[in-house]
Amino acid sequence: MSKYWSALVSELKPYVPGEQPKMANLVKLNTNENPFGPSPKVIAAIKSELNDGLRLYPDPEGQALKQAIADYHVDFGIAPSQVFVGNGSDEVLAHVFQGLLKHDKPILFPDITYSFYPVYCGLYQIESCVMPLNDRFEIDPADYRRPNGGIIFPNPNAPTGRYLGLGHVEDILQANPDSVVVVDEAYVDFGGETAIRLVNQYPNLLVCQTLSKARSLAGLRVGFAVGNEELIEALSRVKDSFNSYPLDRLALAGAVAAFEDKQWFEDSVNGVIREREKLTAELEKRGFEVLPSKANFVFARHPEHAGEDVAALLREQGIIVRHFNKPRISDFLRITVGTADQNKALIKGLGKLAEV
Question: Would the pTM count as exceeding 0.90?
Answer without folding.
Answer: yes
